[in-house]
Amino acid sequence: MNPDTPDSLIPYDEIVQEALRAVVGRVLGSIVSGGGTLPGTHHFYITFKTGAPGVSIPPHLRERFPDEMTIVLQNKFWDLEVGPQGFSVGLTFNQIPAKLQIPFAAITAFVDPAVDFGLQFQAAAEELAPEAHEDAENDGTDPDGDGDGSNVVSIDFGRKK
């Protein structure tokens, strides 16, 4: 953009982010409509802000992951439900079952390493410096271990100062 371009009164970046998060909903919805089992070797890493409005996770997980958490949907998950604003799923953490509710607006990354597909989402300005956290320890694993994330789509719209 050149410096003479006026600021947009249309929030294009927010609209694009919302549309890309809808991709996550559509993918998860297809799993539900397909019987709740992931096809082939597909599996998902979903990263989300644990303190975002509407996120519901057990207190011990919120303590352990006060800012951001990554879950794995692969072999051991149940009760996946997808709605217009988010999804819920049952997972185990250190062999303790937990039910998580995650709004799509809280998601910061979605990756399917089986096909090198990924989406990263812009964090709001107040979320730009996340705290360090441990990797998720739910019972899913990456059997390939060779996904390099080469097809991760990152949308980052610069704002005019």
Helix content: 10-25%
Mean pLDDT: 82
Low-pLDDT regions: 125-131, 145-154
Number of strands: 8
CATH topology: SH3 type barrels
CATH superfamily: SspB-like
Estimate what percentage of residues fall within beta strands.
25-35%
Number of helices: 2
Specify the overall morphology. Answer: globular
How does CATH name the architecture?
Roll
What is the CATH first-level class name?
A: Mainly Beta
Query: Termini distance?
Result: 12 Å
What characterizes the major β-sheet? 5 strands, mixed
Rounded Rg: 17 Å
> What string, H for helix and E for strand, traces the elements in order?
HEHEEEEEEE
Number of domains: 1
Helix-strand makeup class: alpha+beta
Strand arrangement within the widest β-sheet reads: 2-1-6-7-8
